[in-house]
Design goal:
By secondary structure, the protein is an all-alpha fold. It has seven helices and no strands. Its main location: membrane.
Length: 183
Amino acid sequence: MFGLFTNLIVTALGLQTLVWAPVLANTSLIFTFVFLFNFLGEFLGGATFNPTGTASFYAAGVGGDSLLSMALRFPAQAAGSVGGALAILEVMPVQYKHMLGGPTLQVDLQTGGLAEGILTFLMTFAVLVIILKGPRSALLQAWFLATVTVTLVSAGSTYTGPSMNPAYIIEGLWMHPHMHRLS
């Protein structure tokens, strides 16, 4: 969806010829979504929407999750992810459906797995540093998270898309099994 929204914004502003415009639009979109989802999570009493973040904060000993709460949270997050993807497929106008897609393996399996592992580690590490040791301002945290996300997605785009999140891989394989041929 971010690709679609970025394209619509850049086109509406007439900035298609500027190399930096899609990067800035995409970073701004991710910033907005991160900020709003963080606000929504706080409003809902600590709700989280990303299984990777939940697991990494639990492993770091941060937060109030127990093993039982995580065992309940992970399936709910996965179900929400699949439900969201199905909803997007239903409401997406036909002229934009070609822009939808999940991560796709564009290199051999070992290289793709290594790339995803490194990117996931870097993203998780960056999130932990930004949230635990970074600025206290929610706006700055959201901007830093958006910048890191766009940077790592750009760095991994020639390998796997990239997903950097096991839930996205599972969702993408479930939704589009024909797009993930390993040969």
